[in-house]
Each structure stands twice: as structure tokens, then as C-alpha cells.
Specification:
heterodimer; A: mainly alpha; two-stranded antiparallel sheet; 2 strands; globular; B: mainly alpha
């Protein structure tokens, strides 16, 4: 039986990591909210962020956290391209088609990744001093990741509520036809929102890479976590996603001392289905 | 007893003909290599035809359809290896169990619509895979091996492979007949209505929740039998092989390539995909790019020919609609 402080420490650590899951889910939920497309390349984009960090930090020798802005920028550009290639033609068609299109794009990306890097484990060593208390250590990287997540979420809020393009994104999410009638170039706004969503996925991937080792196939597990988080927060609600991430982290942290790690994904899946059925609008959707 | 209305239509005879061809062509000179290739094609066709009941008829996308195949395999391997059951009873009862489980799952997750349902099906597969990998009676992550004498029941290893092949071809024929029968029934009409507009269908009196759960359960049975036969043949099952999402994906590509919602489409699409795949696999450069090619093919179909091959044929020659359903 772990001590009560051990459990508390595990929960706190879970919350720090959960914030990063929340960041990933914000990317997913932003895209859904604006264009009703579930981006199934999400996991692949998280992995792209991980490998981006690996190359910039471990191979080119850039300072770890300085590598994050270029990763976000590259993610944005890639997201805009992906929108034009795979998503634009299926906007407004049955949801089946956009799911299949992003699913297909995901296969291509994961397939290329597997061909390039195989399925070996990579990791990015980061040395940051942690805080030790009563024999438990709070890792520096975990705290740094949570702080950066909060900062990025704040920037996203400022962008969406206080800049013209951000307001345009929210207008298109609210009512695309009305936005078009008011002179907003909606197609470009959709591309912008998709790019932003992918940039968030890549950034969270880079942050996750500072915490845990990863392979090309890690994306699937984090994608599932993002879905759980998004569903907890209510699809299409970025602020809810962050809270959902913290809630999932809390759950994971509380479970870790009591059961083997391999059971985590089963519990997460059960939570996912229960929440989907019982609270289809999410637990943290206050706008109802 | 009068035979059902769909017996005797051109598509019915086509299904019978294809099934007989699958059964008899490899018997010519006892061509084992051809048999193995057709066996794989038959499995792709079984998966695609049953998946089409969900995607093409009811309009619900199931990304994790392989879960039925894997569970069917696991149930049977467990009943055969730990309880000494014969393959036939184990496969049938195992598949019935999987079908029942699907009905139970379906009543829950089919309350979700569209994208939400699709997301939960990925979760079902991953959840079941993680569960099986931790479930000690089924060997956890090492899986289940069959004892050497397991094939004795079918007359030794050499003969067993042929018996299993014929059984799989039979399951393939049944899968196609099931698709065809459902499409020509009131049940099928209700499903197609759900696929077009679920709310309108319900207003018109289609019991959508019951129909959806039933078709989910029906689409589980024959893939589970196929899984049972397939894993019995390899005498070995483990979670990564049983719940391989790539296999699921390839079934989706088969359905979309041939034409979702048609009876002949999944047969054509899955067969062509399997041929393409085996050609590419033998080419050294492409064997690593199997997923990339499946993905690129799927993307091109979704973006440019959403009706697939049959959709294209039906548009080009409207009269073909009556002959090839």
C-alpha cells in the first residue's frame, strides 16, 4: 500500500502531464469546432512534433525549449498544406468522408514514418533540476511542460478573442454562412484553423517528447488520450479540453500507484465510452 | 418452403459462381500456392462484405471491425486448447458469443452517432486488445498455441489445410449472400434509410436503435468464424496479430474501392486490393510501403470517386444497376 503522500505526489505529477494532454486535445477540438472534422492525423502530428524535437535538439544541438517555436511554425505550415490536399474537398460532405480522408492521410504519414525510422524507441534527454520532498521528486521537465502549456493556452486565448483572424475563426465556427456573408474569406479561415490545430498537436508532441521516450507508433495512444480529453471537455471547446486534460492526468496519477500501467488504457477507454454515452456534451461544457 | 425473393437474381448466381470458382480453381493440379493466395483474398472479402453492412448500408463507419475477427479467433483457440472442444462447435459457439457481445456493445455505443461512434470503435478495438494482453486465461501477451495433434480431427495437417480453405470459401459465400439477402429485405431498406437520414427514417417508423444494434451484431458473426478458422490454421494467436488495425483498414479500403453500399463492390474491391497488395509485397521496394499505398489509394477514392468502382459502373451504364447490385 503506497503512503498517502506517495499517492498525492503521483496525482500532482499526473496533473502536470495531463495539462500537456490538454494542449494536444485543444488542437483536435479546435478543428472539430470550426469545421466539424475529426482530424485522425492528430496522432501522427503529435509524433511529428516528437521527431521534430529529436532532430532539432539531439541532432542539431539546439537548446530543447528553443526548438519549440520552429516546430510549431512548421506544424502550422504542414497543417495548411494538409488542409488543401486532404480536407478541403470533403468539407460539407457526409462526416464519413472527412473521417475516411484524414484516416487515409494518417496511414500515409504513419507508413512513411515507419519506413523511415522503424519502430525503435527514441528519447530526448533534458536536464532540468527537479524539486525533492520527503523522498519524492517532482521532475523539472514535467513542471516546465505544464508551465509552457499554460502559456500557450493563454496565447491561444488572446489570439482567438483579441485579434481579427482569431475572431474570424470564432465567427466561422459559430455560423459559416453568416460569416461568409459578412465578408470573411471562410475557406482561408478553415485552412488557418486547421493549421493552428496541427501546430498545437506538434507542440504538445514536442513537449511530450521531453517527458517520455517515444516511437513512430506512439501517436495512436496519445490520439486516444486526446479523444478522451476532448470528450471530457466537450467536442469543440478549447477551454474544456485543457480542463479535460487535467482531469485525465488526475485520473492517471491516482491510478498509477494501484495498478499496472498496462491497464491504464483500458480504464481510459471505459471512461471514454461512459462519458460519451452519459454526457455527450462533455463534463466541462459550461455554455449549455 | 418457398425460397427467399433474392434467390435466382443475376447477382445471386454471380455469388454462387464466384464461390464455386474459389473452391475448384486451386483443386486443379492441387495448386497450394494459389490456394494460399485465394485464402487471403477470401478473408479480405469476408471482412469487407460484413463491414459494408455497417459502412455502406447503415452509414456508420467502424474503424475497429477486426475486433470480431480477433475475438472469434481467441474464443475458438481457447475452447479448443483448454477445453478440448472440436473446431466446428468451438468456431460456431465462439462466433455466436462474439455476436452476442457485439449486440451488447452495440446497444451502448450505437447510441452515439456519426463521428462519435467512429471514435468509439477505434477505442473498442484498442480496449479489447489491451484487455486480452492482460488476461491470463488467454495467455496474456504471449497468446495461445495449439497442441500438435489439434489437426488430427481434420485428418492430419495436410488435409486440414484444404478443409479449412473450403470452410473459409463457404464463409465467404455466406457473407456475400448475407449482404445480398439483407439488401433485398425490409431490414435492409430500413438500414439504407438510416444511412441516408437517421431522423427522417425514425419519423417514418424505422426502429433505428434496434436495427443498428442488430446489424452491428450480424456483421460480427461471419468475421468471427473466419477468425476462428484463420487462427486455427496457424495454430497460434497473440493480441498483436488478432487485433491488427492495419487489417481493419485494408477491409475499409476494399469496401471503398469496390463501392460502399453495393453487394458486388466489396467482393470486387477486396479481391483487387489483395491482388495489388500481393504484387507489391513481392516487389522489394514496396514491401515497406504497404500502409502508405493503402492510405494513398483510400484518399484518392474518397476525394475523387466516393462511389468506388461499382458507383462508377452504375453511373456509366445505368442498366448495370439492375444486374449487379
Amino acid at each position: 500500500m503506497p503512503s498517502w503522500f506517495g499517492v498525492l505526489a503521483s496525482i500532482l505529477d499526473g496533473v502536470l502531464v495531463g495539462a500537456v494532454y490538454g494542449l494536444a486535445a485543444m488542437g483536435l477540438t479546435l478543428i472539430w469546432g470550426v469545421m466539424n472534422v475529426i482530424n485522425l492525423t492528430h496522432g501522427a502530428m503529435i509524433v511529428a512534433g516528437m521527431f521534430g524535437l529529436y532532430y532539432l535538439a539531439s541532432v542539431l544541438g539546439l537548446q530543447t525549449y528553443a526548438a519549440i517555436p520552429p516546430i510549431a511554425a512548421a506544424g502550422f505550415l504542414f497543417g495548411v498544406c494538409l488542409y488543401w490536399v486532404a480536407v478541403h474537398r470533403v468539407i460539407g460532405r457526409p462526416p464519413l468522408m472527412s473521417l475516411l480522408a484524414t484516416f487515409a492521410a494518417n496511414l500515409v504519414l504513419v507508413g512513411l514514418g515507419t519506413a523511415a525510422w522503424g519502430t525503435v524507441l527514441f528519447n530526448v534527454p533534458v536536464s532540468l533540476p527537479g524539486i525533492s520532498y520527503e523522498g519524492y521528486t517532482f521532475t523539472g521537465t514535467h513542471m516546465m511542460a505544464a508551465v509552457l502549456t499554460a502559456a500557450i493556452a493563454g496565447l491561444l486565448y488572446l489570439f482567438l478573442y483579441h485579434t481579427r483572424p482569431g475572431k474570424a475563426i470564432r465567427a466561422v465556427a459559430g455560423n459559416r454562412e453568416a460569416a461568409e456573408l459578412n465578408g470573411i474569406p471562410t475557406t482561408r479561415v478553415l485552412a488557418l484553423a486547421f493549421g493552428l490545430g496541427v501546430a498545437l498537436a506538434c507542440t504538445s508532441g514536442a513537449l511530450i517528447a521531453t517527458l517520455f521516450p517515444f516511437t513512430v507508433l506512439s501517436g495512436a495512444a496519445y490520439q486516444l488520450k486526446s479523444f478522451v480529453v476532448t470528450v471530457l471537455g466537450g467536442l469543440g471547446n478549447p477551454a474544456g479540453a485543457l480542463l479535460g486534460g487535467v482531469a485525465l492526468g488526475l485520473l492517471e496519477g491516482a491510478m498509477t500507484p494501484f495498478m499496472p500501467v498496462s491497464w491504464t488504457s483500458i480504464v481510459e477507454f471505459v471512461v471514454f465510452v461512459i462519458v460519451l454515452i452519459a454526457f455527450p456534451a462533455g463534463l466541462f461544457n459550461f455554455r449549455r | 418452403m418457398t425460397s427467399p425473393a433474392f434467390v435466382g437474381k443475376p447477382t445471386y448466381w454471380l455469388i454462387v459462381l464466384v464461390t464455386l470458382a474459389f473452391a475448384f480453381v486451386p483443386l486443379w493440379h492441387e495448386n497450394v500456392e494459389l490456394r494460399e493466395e485465394l485464402l487471403l483474398a477470401a478473408i479480405y472479402i469476408i471482412l469487407a462484405a460484413n463491414l459494408n453492412l455497417m459502412i455502406g448500408y447503415a452509414g456508420y463507419i467502424n474503424f475497429g471491425n477486426i475486433v470480431f475477427f480477433g475475438l472469434g479467433g481467441y474464443m475458438t483457440m481457447w475452447l479448443v486448447s483448454s477445453h478440448g472442444w472440436s473446431l466446428f462447435t468451438a468456431a460456431l459457439l465462439g462466433a455466436a458469443g462474439v455476436s452476442l457481445l457485439a449486440l451488447f456493445f452495440g446497444l451502448g455505443i450505437l447510441r452515439l452517432r456519426g463521428a462519435y461512434f467512429a471514435l468509439s470503435t477505434i477505442g473498442v478495438n484498442e480496449g479489447v486488445k489491451a484487455f486480452v494482453a492482460n488476461f491470463t486465461p488467454w495467455g496474456g501477451s504471449t497468446g495461445i498455441y495449439l497442441p500438435i495433434d489439434a489437426f488430427a480431427e481434420l485428418g492430419g495437417p495436410g488435409r486440414a489445410l484444404w478443409v479449412i480453405y473450403f470452410l473459409l470459401v463457404g464463409v465467404m459465400g455466406l457473407s456475400l449472400l448475407l449482404s445480398f439477402g439483407i439488401k433485398n429485405s425490409k431490414f435492409g431498406l430500413g438500414l439504407l434509410a438510416i444511412g441516408q437520414n437517421e431522423d427522417a427514417a425514425m419519423v417514418l417508423g424505422v426502429p433505428a436503435p434496434r436495427y443498428k444494434a442488430l446489424v452491428y451484431s450480424a456483421s460480427a458473426f461471419l468475421p468471427a468464424v473466419a477468425g476462428a478458422l484463420f487462427f486455427f490454421k496457424s495454430a497460434f494467436i497473440q493480441p498483436d496479430d488478432a487485433f491488427d488495425l492495419v487489417f481493419s483498414t485494408e477491409a475499409i479500403v476494399g469496401v471503398m474501392l469496390g463501392g460502399q453500399g453495393t453487394v458486388v463492390g466489396p467482393l470486387l474491391g477486396a479481391f483487387l486490393y489483395e491482388e495489388l497488395r500481393s504484387t507489391l509485397l513481392t516487389a522489394e521496394t514496396f514491401s515497406n510501403f504497404q500502409m502508405v499505398i493503402a492510405g494513398a489509394l483510400l484518399l484518392l477514392i474518397v476525394l475523387f470517386v466516393p462511389g468506388g468502382l461499382m458507383g462508377w459502373i452504375h453511373r456509366r451504364w445505368p442498366r448495370a444497376r439492375k444486374v449487379l447490385e
